[in-house]
């Protein structure tokens, strides 16, 4: 396969710090240099190694003695020290998002193969920051931080008004009248169908919805102005996925994707297809009806998110990942020392007020790595089958063989 530094650099540049006022001001260019496995622009079949050098590191930001005495709340400082007995003197070591450079570099190589060999396309985008999000559900309006807070307050009040009431009657009338009929709006599904990286990258927030992007920007800047941080979600869609990828039981394709996504620093949630919203839709509405598409079976809807029984069905795969608010902030935070003595910690240094704009290429890269593993495994299975005598299955009942089912249908 043809491969150059430029093929990898595109994604690394999207991940690098210092891109805008929404990210850490640390100015790393993250220039990649392929060290081995490629000659004259072509891969050799040997391991590919790549080098990205740090140029703007500042270890002195971590020389404050309070960081030696107090673990950062919600950071990995304590768990790493508790597990290994030692920890890195500056930064988070292996828990730092700086390690995702390797993921993105490897993912760029995997994605190039997927694109050239199968036409696979992977696009991720920021779908929410704090309570500001792209409308996803039928009839939903663009939420702002204030309106979301009001909604939460009214919900809490409603719950409170019923908390003390005791009703021994069980009335099931109209129980299904308010059930959700569609987990995602037509507008959001259209976005999943058409969104491109060019559209995503038009705004530093990496949100393809202009109005939502502007509100997200203001929310991030608000957190930054208060020396605080805010979380968000990233949605990813994978198009033109071959069917048959994934394994039964423990290595289901969605399990592999969840494993990969939740290994990214700061992730806290994962949902695929209709996700949690789909649990509120009756099966009669949620089931994806089979239809004929270009001579093959396809589905009319895609609430399954392109995976059924842990195996890809040929439809687009889409999922959403939740990222927590970054733990390292410059506000005073109550904590205790490693010996349990109460104290206050405010960290210095250059940290992201929100990680989701830079997380987009990381999500895409991890998706590419999962998919290429699944594709190579499926290719190996097909190759292994071609070495066996096909007549071995001719004595099986016709109901057990796909080709016989297709022939039967064609003869009707």
UniProtKB/TrEMBL annotation:
Mind telling me which InterPro entries this protein's record contains?
Answer: Chorismate_synth, Chorismate_synth_AroC_sf, Chorismate_synthase_CS
The reply to whether Repeat figures as a keyword in the UniProt entry is no
SUPFAM superfamilies xrefs: Chorismate synthase, AroC (SSF103263)
Q: Which UniProt keywords apply?
A: Amino-acid biosynthesis, Aromatic amino acid biosynthesis, Lyase
Q: Name one GO biological process term.
A: chorismate biosynthetic process
Name the pathway.
Metabolic intermediate biosynthesis; chorismate biosynthesis; chorismate from D-erythrose 4-phosphate and phosphoenolpyruvate: step 7/7
Broad class of enzyme this protein falls into: lyase
Molecular function (GO) terms listed? chorismate synthase activity; FMN binding
Which stretches of sequence are listed as region Disordered? 1-36
Q: EC?
A: 4.2.3.5
Q: Which GO terms describe its cellular component?
A: cytosol
Q: Specify residue ranges for compositional bias: Polar residues.
A: 1-12
Record carries keyword Amino-acid biosynthesis: yes
Q: Which family does it belong to?
A: Belongs to the chorismate synthase family.
Which NCBIfam families does the record cross-reference, listed alphabetically?
A: aroC (TIGR00033)
* Record protein name field: chorismate synthase
């Amino acid at each position: 396969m043809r491969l150059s530094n430029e093929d990898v650099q595109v994604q690394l540049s999207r991940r690098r710090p210092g891109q805008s006022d929404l990210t850490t001001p640390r100015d790393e260019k993250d220039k990649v240099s392929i060290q081995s496995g490629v000659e004259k622009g072509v891969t050799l079949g040997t391991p590919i190694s790549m080098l990205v050098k740090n140029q703007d590191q500042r270890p002195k930001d971590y020389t404050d003695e309070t960081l030696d005495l107090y673990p950062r709340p919600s950071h990995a400082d304590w768990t790493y020290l508790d597990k290994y007995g030692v920890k890195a003197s500056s930064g988070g070591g292996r828990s730092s998002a700086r390690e995702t450079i390797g993921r993105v570099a490897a993912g760029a190589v995997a994605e190039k193969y997927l694109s050239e060999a199968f036409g696979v396309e992977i696009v991720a985008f920021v779908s929410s920051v704090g309570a500001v999000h792209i409308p996803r559900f039928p009839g939903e309006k663009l939420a702002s931080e204030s309106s979301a807070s009001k909604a939460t307050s009214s919900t809490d009040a409603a719950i409170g008004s019923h908390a003390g009431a005791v009703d021994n009657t069980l009335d099931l009338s109209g129980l299904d009248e308010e059930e959700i009929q569609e987990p995602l709006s037509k507008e959001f599904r259209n976005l999943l169908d058409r969104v491109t990286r060019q559209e995503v990258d038009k705004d530093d927030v990496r949100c393809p919805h202009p109005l939502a992007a502007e509100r997200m920007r203001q929310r991030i800047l608000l957190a930054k102005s208060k020396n605080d941080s805010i979380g968000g979600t990233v949605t990813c869609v994978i198009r033109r996925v071959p069917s048959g990828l994934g394994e039964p039981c423990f290595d289901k394709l969605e399990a592999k994707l969840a494993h990969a996504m939740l290994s990214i620093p700061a992730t806290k949630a994962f949902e695929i297809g209709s996700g949690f919203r789909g649990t509120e839709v009756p099966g009669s509405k949620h089931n994806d009806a089979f239809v004929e598409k270009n001579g093959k079976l396809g589905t009319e809807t895609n609430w399954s998110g392109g995976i059924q029984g842990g195996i890809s069905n040929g439809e687009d795969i889409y999922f959403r990942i939740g990222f927590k608010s970054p733990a390292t902030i410059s506000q005073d935070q109550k904590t205790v020392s490693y010996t349990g003595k109460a104290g206050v910690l405010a960290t210095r240094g250059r940290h992201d007020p929100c990680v989701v704009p830079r997380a987009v290429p990381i999500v895409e890269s991890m998706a590419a790595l999962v998919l290429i593993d699944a594709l190579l495994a499926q290719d190996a299975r097909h190759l292994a089958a071609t070495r066996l005598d096909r007549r071995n299955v001719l004595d099986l009942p016709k109901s057990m063989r796909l080709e016989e089912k297709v022939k039967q249908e064609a003869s009707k």
